[in-house]
Amino acid sequence: MNQKSKFTYEDAVNYVLGRLSEEEKKIFEKELESNSELNEMVKLANSNKESILKLDEFEVTDEFVSMLLMKAKNVLSETRVKQGLVFKIDERALDYEKRMFLEDLYFIVLTNPEESLTGEDVRVIPLSTLTKYVQNYDLVFTDSLISTKKLNVVAHMHLVTNITIDKLKYFIGKLKPENFKAIVHADFNDYSLVDQKTILTGLEYRKRFPIDSYFDEEYETWYSVLKNLLETFRIETIEKVEEEIGEPTVFYFPDLHLQKEEVYNLSSMKQYFLFSSKDKSVRMKPEYRFDAQGFLIVEDKKNIFKNRYQLEVRKKSLKIIKLNYDKVKQKVYEKISDENKENMKESLLRKYNLMIEEYPSYVSKTAALKLAAKQFTFHGIPENSLSLYEDEKLSIYFSFYDDRLFIEINFLEKDKIDIVENFHFVILADSSGLFIPSIKVEFNQFKIPLNFSRKQIENLQEGYIVGFIYNKVSFVVHLRLLLH
Questions:
Q1: What SS3 class is residue 432?
Q2: Which of 99, 292, 310, 386 could pair with 398 as two cysteines, CB 3.0-4.6 Å apart?
Q3: What pTM, to 2 d.p., does this model score?
Q4: Tens of pLDDT, residues 272-305
Q5: Got the DSSP string for 173-231?
């Protein structure tokens, strides 16, 4: 007759997996000597050991169960699409292959829809647990919203796109703030928030956890299909922008006081008013304010810099000269040959103590955009930006993203601009600054994080230079920050 066991199958599993304490193990093995039922349980546990270990990897903890319940609740809720939230795409309208490629992807929203030209699209980056497809420029981190396993969530930075909000059907939840901030910064080609501990670059992840070459080959197929799919979403957005803008866009400046009806005011470009017009005669030029030393005056009227850095105001009696654009463009624009380009570099590095830096090109986007469509990437400019210079060709800003200072340049011409060369930012008071030999321009815009000290920021009052070369044209402007 089989003896009734006082132990359960769970105890047998713990014994097989070596989870019993030494004292518990002794008692269990003593019972095992005479208990045939318990022997059968151990045999069963041994035969299922591999499956048990696989299930164990899923870490079905209270936290995991809570996460699943929260996701289920979120999916059923009606949540407005906005920055920082994670959604899944409504796949029902897609064919089987596309649904298959999207089912493992989540999308983190980087911008708010009202900041776009259409008012109905946002910038998103796909998230997944597909660590076997990690690329050097991706981010890998832990976030219980997607996976409870350590370093198991990938932000596929190379698949960033704009998408209309109607596609983001199912609300999943919100990432940890530190993970979201790191993704936002990486989208600006700034990986400074990556600590290589809780948040890794793809390059570091691949060093620590080598990926079989088979998956690199499989990745190419995955990437190709998915990139084409996301590209269709981006093109839909561009077409919607073109519908909103309509006729070719003409740029005007707010100090003109033109009595025209405003068609669309870019919230991210408060200094501009956009009008559709065929009348070239109404294109008027703005005036620029220079001091007697030839510096273009940049006034911090809202005390953005003064309050943020606790700056000391260096009061100066400035004699202001007003110049129109026709005179200013002769001062800042100049045709340049390849020989003069090299001479410029040598002269700058000889004259100033500049740090030579490389501008990382983590994201590859090559599609050409029409003038109207170019503007949709400007939605990232925050309210506390400071305009340095602007004309019909380009605009330059100081902007803060997550309390980090950037200089950003937006090209407004119809001509496609791929590369900027000899970018330099010089603080004249101590001849410090940075020099970047080459910058890949994407969507006619680039941003550079400025890691300046408080003293260097304060020295902007003494004068500074921003310059670069694009399409065989040299642009150099001398500026002075005026605090109040």
A1: strand
A2: 386
A3: 0.54
A4: 333 333 333 333 457 899 998 999 999 988 888 9
A5: EE--HHHHHHHHHHHTT--TT--SSSEEEHHHHHHHS---HHHHHHHHHHHHHHHHHHH
